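Posted in: Structural Biology > Protein-Ligand Complexes

Title: Requesting predicted complex, cobalt (II) ion in pocket

I'd be grateful if someone could produce the 3D structure tokens for the following input. Sequence and ligand are given below.
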Amino acid sequence: MDFFNTIGKIMYEGPKSKNPLSFKFYDAERIVLGKTMKNHLPFAMAWWHNLGGGGTDMFGRDTADKSFGAVPGTMEHAHAKVEAGFEFMEKLGVGYFCFHDVDIAPETDNLLETNRRIDEISDHILEKMAATGIECLWGTANMFTNPRYMNGAGSSNSADVFTFAAAQIKKALDITVKLDGKGYVFWGGREGYETLLNTDMQFELDNCARLMTMAVEYGRGIGFKGDFYIEPKPKEPMKHQYDFDAATAIGFLRRYGLDKDFKLNIEANHATLAGHTFQHDLRVAAMNGMLGSIDANTGDPLLGWDTDEFPFDVYDTTLCMYEVLRAGGLTGGLNFDAKNRRPSYTCEDMFHAYILGMDSFALGLIKAAALIEDGRIDRFVRQRYSSYESGIGKKIRDGNTSLADLSAYAEMLGKPELPGSGRQEYLQAVMNQILFD
Ligand code: XUL
Ligand code: CO
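-- Reply #1 --
Done. Output follows.
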């Protein structure tokens, strides 16, 4: 069945094209810094938003019809979503998808039946993967929607709830391995607290780590070779979430000895909710060797919640790809954890959204490569720290000095020179020149 029969294959037509259903910048086979765009940008479709989200918000119900010719909540509908999803990805040339267990098959109140449904739908997905060459980027278990997770999953006060989380993770790992997923994500949406008056934070963190340790043991046991990821987010739905940001998640992983098996999945809108730039959290992950994958979206600077918009700001995508290129690329990919705005409810809008996201990242890649090739910014940063390349600076760097030595040196100097201009405005102008030349 053809669900998007008014839309053909989306082609690259170049920056002058006015055809809304064409790529202006994403040219899959174009070589940038020695690799095709397709290789630099492993785009993924998020099953939940794209095939499941109809625009329901706190004040109103769905505006978009995502029934795909079947009754939502039925297995017929779950199968239709598989067909629609693969047609959508093929038409756009999106090479990967990401899923939660409950996105692919409707959950029932019996674990055995839910798992049987997941088996049935994942067989269908496997067939479509074989027919199209589309791959699974990562899988995960939804441990936040069902009311049992009101106090978290690993961090729940209830041991029975903890066992359900374990059961869901086991099944989601089985399916991720069955679909040959590159990664497995933990997004701890409800792993956190509302008030410390009722919370044993240390106990909850130990328990979250126990659950992840069991996931690693089980996953490695069934042949999962990919990376586990934590996807940091500071708040929403909980007031305080334990995986606050990249730095916090890395500290947690090291403390519990999970850092060899885990990397991070950095989401733009989560970084900004934590009060950072997207680039900041990417840098923190990269410099710790933990930049694994990216949830590519954006927030709105005027709104304080997770709006999951499609990325469009080319400054942001450029700085993101600048970090990715400098880190040597991603082991994961770029998952559009993003949804159409509620009034963009037609199926053309679904395509416009992915075209916007893919073109914004293609442009970001081109501009990030140009920034690197231009070299002025990198050279400036190196030069800025050049006082550590010789003399007393080199001694500090090599660990060949002490507070007493340095104090004697400072006394001899009497007064240091000013550290040199940071040249922020000049560097921003370089960036504009490269972006808009
Ligand atoms: C929620 C979010 C999730 C994760 C997967 O903010 O980003 O969709 O990506 O559970
Ligand atoms: Co996400």
